[in-house]
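Bug #77: duplicate submission created two jobs. Keeping one. Sequence:
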Amino acid sequence: MRKRSRFAVLATVASVAASFLVASPAVAAAPFDAQCHGDRVIRCVRLDVTGSGAVAIASVTDDQSDSSNYDVTVDAVQLQAWYGYWSTIREASGDSGWQVEWDRAVTSGGGCDQAYRVVAFLRWRAVGGTATGETFTSKSAVVNC
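Kept job's structure:
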């Protein structure tokens, strides 16, 4: 009997502790609309949904993962909302300057029950070469929280 009651107490304590470690679904971020393209330089934009609204994320990656291939940078990422026209409501930039293999930028959040899209301004260059740039716009999506 004593072993059973100790086991029951330990199991209860473990399940309560685990409940504190797991975020509720309303708060946890989940990818809502992820889009990537590119061969040697992978460019991605993503609209994430949190309990408080939408967040725009942009990244650019040198797929060779070495310092002798491409340098990359996220100049800016914008979270844009639809008000009959697209309007930038949040903006962020990546780490300052050129990065050896990866850069990312994340905006602060927008609200719920709104149509959003992500616009990213990305650049990359062969080491010592001329920069190439791209404006990458995601598909729009309505965020309901």
